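I am writing to request your help with a piece of structural work I have in hand. What I wish to show you is a protein chain and, alongside it, a tokenised description of its three-dimensional fold. Could you please explain, in whatever detail you think fit, how the structure tokens follow from the sequence? You will find the record immediately after this paragraph.
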Amino acid sequence: MITLQGIAKRFGDNHVLKGVNLTVNKSEVVVIMGPSGSGKSTLLRCTTFLEEPDEGIVRIGDYEVKAGEPTRQRQAEIRQLRQHTGFVFQQFNLFPHKTALQNVMEGPVVTKKMPLDQAKTIATELLTKVGLADKCEHYPSRLSGGQQQRVAIARALAMEPMVMLYDEPTSALDPELVREVLQVMKNLAKEGMTMVVVTHEMGFARDVADRVIFMDGGVIVEEGTAEEIFNNPQEERTRRFLANVRH
């Protein structure tokens, strides 16, 4: 469902990604972990060209975009790729002047030109799905961080993506609000949504990930099942990271 081939990214002299290759199968949940500055978030952002990779190819479903010159055709290819990819950020990025319902309706109405009544029906169903049926008419300022993040997940789902990408979706939340967001993500995983999650939530990785990837220094150091990585890591860097996280 997702293929990343030779993804490289530099910021000045800082070589953040060094030719990363990654394949994610349909309905697979892949968790990416690693220390700060290891390239995890940059890799996710390069997948949707929010960051322009210097080298490499991104494939999502049947849509392929190569790193290269920003031609008009390429911009159209990137738009298509993004339309089939849901992205949930660390910050919720909701429109403050729109209700929860309006935030979720925005993508289908503006991007897909969906009729308002149809978009409203879908948005209401999705807010119910993430446990916010009673918050449809609330503005973001009246919602907790966990509720805002669940609206953001519903908003991403409204575009009917083939894959969902999450960049530290719980790191801006108070600890007691983390569980409600992770529960929504667990439910989506059970339904077979293809997901790539950058997170420090080790419990989520253990419970939900089909595969765990450890990144450091702009490369994939080690990957395996959650059981393999947590119980029997092969690489010294992985062992050191997990020891620090556990304490």
